[in-house]
Amino acid sequence: MPDSSGIATELIGVLDMGASAIRLVVAEIDNKRNVRVIEEASRGVLLGRDTFSGGLIRSQTVDAALEALDGFREIMDGYGVRDVRAVATSAVREARNADMFLDRIQGRTGIRFEIINEAEESRLVYMAVRHALRRHASLKSARTLLVEVGGGSTSLTLLRRGEPMRSGVYALGAVRLRQQLDLRRHTQELQVALLKRYIANVIEEIRLEIPLDRVSHVIAIGGDVRFVAAQLTGTEPEADVREISRDQFLAFCDEVERMDEDSLVDQIRYTNTDMADAGFQNLMFKGCPITYDADAPANTMDFLNFRYLRVVGHSDTWFKNTPFVRPNNRDARTSQILCYGQFVTMKRSAQGRLTFTPHA
User: Fold this and answer.
1) I need a labelling partner for 47 at 20 to 30 A (CA). Which of 180, 222, 228, 290 fits?
2) What is the Cβ-side half-sphere exposure of residue 21, based on CA atoms within 13 angstroms?
3) Nearest-angstrom CA–CA distance, 24 and 43
4) Could you tell me if 21 and 43 are in contact, meaning their C-beta atoms sit under 8 angstroms apart?
5) 73-80 long-range contacts, CB within 8 A, separation 24+
6) CATH for 118-292?
7) Longest dimension (CA), the chain
8) Pairing of strands 83-88, 35-44
9) Cα angle for residues 168, 272, 255 (degrees, 5° grid)
10) Two domains, one topology: 9-115 and 118-292
11) pLDDT per position in the chain (360 positions), as tens?
12) C-alpha span between 335 and 323 (Å, rounded)
């Protein structure tokens, strides 16, 4: 369909089902293949917690995934999206009940997920980075390592002047390690020792295939990486590109290594639910993600049951347009869409609040 400038555009929806979250992007593509993202959404669903510990996606997790996808289906329908690409990676790929799980999703939402293999994962990551960083110096370097860190696996691609030379996907991810090593049973010191030993073994495997000592630049993407960059640069996790030095990164790793999980909660800034449930089990409560709100009262935790919450719109001002006006020095006319409403609950006993009394 043409936009206001007369350029033909199409709407697409992309869904990515990973080990720790399901993510949606709705974008507009014009006939010159320019992409404009118009909506992003994410819902924490720890599929990897089930798959990497028992090999099966449990019924409670299936329900959580279906609830999240119901909401994403509504978003896409609201925009009129007809073209949807939905992919699932390691957490679904390795589950013994993956076919049943995806059949339930398609039957309920009409969304057909494709389980992609490691090679396709690496290809899609490379294409996305090449598009986003096509003018960046790192893609002109003799040897650059492209790293995508997920909850279930890590994808590595060695680039030579921007072109892929070798690639591989390795069983290294925050959710996978936590479940397979059963870290909750151990002290913080033993957790660190187990993690270091496991990671060192994987790195030795990588060295057999990729000459890591000859790499001059690293391009890293993924929720865990955005979290680290946000801590070091003080920028929002949604920022597109941030650069950090090797020394900064190693110093941050040393700092985190000395912290237990309680210290991480107290000292590390979590700014969205992707960061809050990216492998840290203590930031889930009874299987539900915790969202930090800087404006909430101190020492309180509120519980929201969305089954009994809804928005009631104002009868006179609900998606109501104001008159179009032409701002100074602008060609386009603009109008506000006013939407007044209030959250109401049909069952107050289903909501809750915990209040904590700090120790002196």
Assistant:
1) 228
2) 22
3) 9
4) yes
5) 73/109, 73/110, 73/111, 75/24, 75/26, 75/39, 75/41, 76/13, 76/24, 76/26, 79/11, 79/13, 79/26, 79/38, 79/39, 80/11
6) 3.30.420.150
7) 68
8) unpaired
9) 70
10) yes
11) 555 555 567 899 999 999 988 999 999 988 887 888 888 888 889 899 999 988 999 999 999 999 999 999 999 999 899 999 999 999 999 999 999 999 999 999 999 999 999 889 889 989 988 888 888 888 888 899 999 988 888 999 999 988 999 888 888 888 888 888 888 788 888 888 999 999 999 999 999 999 998 998 999 988 778 878 888 887 655 556 788 888 998 998 888 888 876 666 655 555 444 444 444 444 555 556 677 676 777 778 888 877 778 878 877 777 788 888 877 766 777 788 888 888 788 777 878 888 877 665
12) 6
Judge whether 15 and 39 are in contact, CB under 8 Å: no
CB 180 within 8 A of CB 157: no
Spatial neighbors of 55 by CB under 8 A, at least 6 apart, are 94, 95, 96
| Per-domain boundaries in the chain | 9-115, 118-292, 306-355
Both structure tokens of 294: 């800087």
Name the nearest CA neighbour of 23 among 228, 286, 238: 238
* Assigned fold of 9-115: Nucleotidyltransferase; domain 5 (3.30.420)
User: Are the C-beta atoms of residues 49 and 175 closer than 8 Å to each other?
Assistant: yes
Q: Measured between alpha carbons, how far is 37 from 214 in angstroms, rounded to an integer?
A: 36
